[in-house]
Specification:
Largest sheet: 8 strands, parallel
Strand content: 5-15%
CATH architecture: Alpha-Beta Barrel
Radius of gyration: 16 Å
Structural class: alpha/beta
CATH class: Alpha Beta
Number of domains: 1
Number of helices: 9
Shape: globular
Order of helices and strands: EHEHEHEHEHEHEHEHH
Helix content: 40-55%
Length: 250
């Protein structure tokens, strides 16, 4: 089973539903990708009101219903709002979502994030969290790899997936190395020689997951970044789907 752990619909406002670009489904079919893990982040507002997150999750639920077993939904919330905990519980219980997506509304070490992650722990679901280390300066509430690692250490029962290998992948791998419940995903536009190989060497293939970040990134490029890496066939099998299959019980 091949699973892309990081897919988003195109941005959509409150007056229009978010939907997957049909080309993503076509590319997935052509590449043999069996499942896409989808979370809508609405209009891509950095600090969305709670209602925008609710609407984004209903859009994800609609995509799940229309596309069937090909789509696995993750719930997106802004932890600034206490209602985020109830929304996560509803997304898992009512819509069958399998994980939590956190983006840039709060840094990982913000105490307001803790209740949502505690609920994820109770629900036994993973947390996919954006991280980046930008030489030009991060967004005001954008987490760096070390902050995601600190959050993962606080909640050792939760599997965290650090998106984009932390943006600067050497920093991301270093931050994750001594935190056993912290994985990295391969998503994003970064394609550099040695990044997959170093992640496998330093973290082990069991803590690396294939992700594309489509629709913002070309899915075939993201796939071949892993499929063409100089790692063993077994490592590729784990990264391209087996790790996520086991984690989500698919």
């Amino acid at each position: 089973m091949t699973i892309d752990c990081h897919v988003h619909p195109a941005a959509a406002g409150l007056d229009a539903p978010a939907d997957l670009d049909p080309r993503i489904l076509e590319d997935a079919e052509r590449l043999g990708i069996d499942k896409l893990i989808v979370s809508s982040i609405g209009s891509w507002n950095y600090e969305p009101p709670h209602g925008e997150c609710v609407k984004a999750n209903r859009d994800t639920a609609a995509i799940m219903k229309r596309c069937g077993e090909r789509i696995v939904g993750f719930c997106y919330v802004n932890p600034t709002f206490p209602e985020a905990v109830e929304e996560l519980e509803r997304c898992v219980g009512d819509f069958g979502m399998r994980g939590l997506k956190l983006w840039v509304s709060n840094v990982a070490t913000d105490p307001r994030v803790f209740p949502v992650v505690e609920k994820a722990s109770q629900l036994c679901i993973p947390v996919l969290m954006h991280a980046w280390h930008k030489t030009t300066g991060n967004l005001p509430n954008e987490s760096r790899p070390a902050q995601v690692a600190e959050l993962a250490q606080r909640f050792p029962s939760v599997v965290f997936i650090m998106a984009h290998m932390g943006g600067q992948w050497q920093r991301g791998i270093k931050a994750a190395r001594r935190v056993p419940n912290l994985w990295v995903d391969t998503s994003g536009s970064i394609v550099e020689l040695g990044m997959i190989e170093e992640a496998v060497e330093k973290l082990g293939p069991e803590r690396v997951a294939f992700g594309s970040d489509a629709s913002g990134v070309d899915l075939p490029v993201a796939f071949w970044k892993v499929a063409g890496a100089d790692v063993s066939p077994e490592a590729k099998r784990l990264i391209l789907g087996e790790n996520m299959r086991r984690l989500l019980g698919l």
